[in-house]
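TA notes, week 10

Several of you asked for a full example with nothing omitted. So below is the full record: structure tokens for the whole chain, then the designed sequence directly under it. When grading your own attempts, check the secondary structure regions first.
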């Protein structure tokens, strides 16, 4: 893996991790929070969407 790819993946992972923390404090049922985390993490990391959702 080249440095640019590594930095890209790391940056998106960090954004996904922060978003997961934010979702966890929401007053939603745990199942809904789990699904939200999965959905956003997949979009940010696996599909490499812009972490800022422009």
């Amino acid at each position: 893996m080249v440095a640019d790819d590594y930095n890209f993946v790391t940056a998106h992972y960090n954004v996904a991790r922060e978003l997961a923390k934010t979702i966890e404090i929401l007053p939603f049922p745990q199942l809904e929070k789990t699904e939200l985390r999965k959905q956003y993490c997949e979009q940010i990391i696996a599909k490499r969407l812009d972490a800022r959702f422009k």
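The helical segments are 3-24, 30-46. Use that as a sanity check on your answer.
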